[in-house]
Write a structure and sequence with these properties.
mainly alpha
Length: about 200
Amino acid sequence: IKLLPLPTLELAEVLDQEVMENPLLEEEPVEETKTVEEIAQEETAERERPDDPLKEIDIERFFEDSLRMSPLLATFIGDHRYDDQLPNYIGPDYRAQARAMNERYLAEVQIIDANKLAPADRISYEIFVRERLRARAAEQFPDYLLPLNQAGSLLTLMPALGSGTNAQPFGTVEDYEQWLKRLDGLVVWMDQAIVN
């Protein structure tokens, strides 16, 4: 209040002196803030870039295909659409379908020029390609011939799921019916393990 009657030049000198004596009073530059609408528009524009090479692969479709191929994964992440299914993971038909899906997505993503991607997209691209190549390389190891191992197997997982304290829900009659259908898949899996 004592500063108000000072002329502008004297006021500037007093303020400069105060800042010198007390660095906490130093003026911070104010960043220009954007409104929520402006941020949303920028994000939409970024997602809808016509030159976005990652649009060549439909990640949502890949995720949905993965859940269909691996209904136990769906159950464990809380998606209960496939709780009645247990594919014959170690059977030749399932392995052929998994190989075809992996090769299809690998071919789709490898046509993308990774050098044209933004840094964050480049990381996503590289992880996706690496995982597809790892799945391809893993095919040379016939793990389907080893239905049991020291780390566990489907035969140790199924009792845990059926306990009612795991990811498989048991709250309704439909839940129990889905579990019984899933157990039918276990019978097929065990028969396949014997054949293998």
